[in-house]
Design brief:
The protein contains 1 helix and 5 strands. The strands form 2 sheets. The protein has a 3-stranded antiparallel beta sheet, with no helix packed on it. A two-stranded antiparallel sheet has the order 1-2. A hairpin with a 4-residue loop joins strand 4 and strand 5. It is flat and about 55 Å long. The chain starts with a strand and ends in a 5-residue tail after the last strand.
């Protein structure tokens, strides 16, 4: 997860937004992988930073992001948990 705060002049400009990345198996990641190697893999899940986002459940975890966005502020509440076991 990354938060991006674009430059604003006199409160004019793009509002802050968040970017997400998760390992879906398509990107080789190991203990030697550097953060800089992954930067281009991050994406903005919604064009509106005030919309909530839930990571795909097939990752095996429940991850839910609930943002509160303003023109120059962004607050993220993130819930992470286990998914219920299939019966």
């Amino acid at each position: 997860m990354r938060i991006w705060q674009p430059v604003q002049v006199l409160n004019i400009g793009t509002a802050p937004y968040f970017l997400t990345f998760y390992d879906d198996g398509s990107t080789p990641i190991d203990k030697n992988t550097k953060y800089d190697d992954l930067v281009d893999k991050f994406s903005q899940p919604n064009s509106n930073p005030a919309l909530p986002y839930q990571f795909p459940e097939d990752l095996g975890l429940y991850v839910y992001i609930s943002p509160t966005a303003g023109s120059s502020t962004l607050k993220l509440s993130i819930a992470v948990g286990s998914l219920p076991k299939a019966k």
